[in-house]
Amino acid sequence: MSILSVAQKLEILADAAKYDASCASSGTKRRDSLSGRKGGLGSTEGMGICHAYAPDGRCISLLKILLTNSCIFDCHYCINRQSSNVRRARFTVQEIVALTLNFYRRNYIEGLFLSSGIIRSPDYTMEQLIEVARTLREEHDFRGYIHLKTIPDADVELAHQAGLYADRLSINVELPTEQGLERLAPEKNGARIEGAMKDLRMAIEDMGDARKRYRHAPRFAPAGQSTQMIVGADGSDDRTILRRARSLYDKHALRRVYYSAFSPIPSPSSVLPLKRPPLLREHRLYQSDWMMRFYGFSVRDLEQATDPETGHLPLDIDPKLAWALRHREIFPVDVNKVAREMLLRVPGLGVRAVDRIVASRRERRLKLADVARLTNSIAKLRPFLIASDWRPLHLIDSVDLQRRLTPAATQLELFA
Questions:
Q1: Phi, psi for residue 170 in degrees, rounded to 5
Q2: Are 46 and 60 in contact (CB under 8 A)?
Q3: Which residues of 250-276 are buried (b: 16+ CB within 10 A; e: fewer)?
Q4: What is the DSSP letter of 257?
Q5: Element at 228 (helix H, strand E)
Q6: Which stretches make up the Elp3/MiaA/NifB-like radical SAM core domain (predicted)?
Q7: Stretch 143-150: mean pLDDT, rounded?
Q8: How high is the pLDDT of residue 306?
């Protein structure tokens, strides 16, 4: 490996990290430099060379890099696989620490997202990642956000050490099915990945209980754990992906499942598809995931929104509208009477809008104009709602309702 400057390493290893989607920094403890030792650095709050968004809309800027893009594994879908012909680089622990501190002082970032290819062994690689986090926390009192990717084959004690320094840990399941993992990443094992996620959940719960009992018990990964699935690298349909996501949420209490659309890589393996799936497919999966976590939809509900033949979610309309169009017998619902849970199933109504409606109808009966003031757009809602001055009659039974509610295709401006 040729001698590279830190700037050259940053160019290579920041670009190599872009394929990992799981870098949102929501859910951790609020913490700033004023609450630390004198001279402490960093914050988990504020506005912010990777941008992620918290559920409340805050923009979080993270230094998102790899320790190294060298790897002893040869996963077919990975640009950093052992057989890939890419330029390699590796940071030292001190180089990453210095970059993080310098970028923070310049107000470029609010935290660090650190992953790595596997070098020497999983344990050795995990030790290097932990040393970065330990140095930042203990030697520099860095109080910003840290997200570490955990290597499932590493010793469980190393994962425990990582949780003492990182706000969030994540272990990628990579692919939705065990068959896909065996075919595209034969050196990885689904059972070991799930076992590592289970161990991590137990550690988070145990340390959480300790914090309730003992005031000075150490914090352990306060922002929980997450994972990522690659979409479109194997033949899994959206139904399979959503079932897998629901299973992971239930078994391992994940904060997030991230979906990353497969992207063709240089010198691709012959077993990979020739082109990437539509990015809109990734977006529909995120919408469905949101519906599972915050809108009370079950996996079975979401399966009913997919195409019966392909198993995929429609791309032209969102999954909530697709579900509603297949359950027209439920609609329209009376905005002044129906339960909150049912209002959450109305296309076009978000959680905030529903809460505003529920609060407002305690004071008076709502008209359609009142609902319009509480939401972003009333056009999609009209066929599905009854208000004190509005009843859609046979609109919900209209044969061209889907066409009328489907957004018109528009050409985006390149330099808008």
A1: -140, 145
A2: no
A3: eebebbbbbbbbbbebeeeeeebeeee
A4: E
A5: strand 225-231
A6: 61-288
A7: 92
A8: 96
Q: Is the pTM of this model over 0.70?
A: yes
Are residues 272 and 77 in contact, defined by beta-carbon separation less than 8 angstroms?
A: yes
Each residue's pLDDT tens digit, 272-285: 887 788 889 999 99
Q: C-alpha angle 47/133/30, rounded to 5°?
A: 40
Contact 19, 263 (CB under 8 A): yes
Q: Strand pairing of 50-53 and 59-66? A: antiparallel
Residue showing tokens 């990734």: 282
Give the domain ranges of the chain.
6-228, 327-405
Residue-wise over 313-340: b if at least 16 C-beta within 10 A, else e? bbeebbbbbbbbbeeeeebbbbbbebee
Q: Are 79 and 28 in contact (CB under 8 A)?
A: no
**The residue type at 159:** A
Q: What are phi and psi of 257, to 5 degrees?
A: -110, 125
- What's the rounded Cα separation, in Å, for the pair 229 and 175? 5
- What band does 47 get if pLDDT is binned at 50, 70 and 90? very low
- 6-228: CATH architecture: Alpha-Beta Barrel (3.20)
Rounded distance between C-alpha atoms, residue 235 and residue 56, angstroms: 35
Mean pLDDT taken over the chain: 86
CA distance 303 to 242: 8
Q: Which helix (H) or strand (E) holds 196?
A: helix 190-213
Q: Of 56, 54, 50, nearest to 20 (Cα)?
A: 50
CB–CB of 102/47 below 8 Å? Answer: no
Contact 173, 227 (CB under 8 A): yes
CA triple 160-91-135, angle to 5 deg: 45
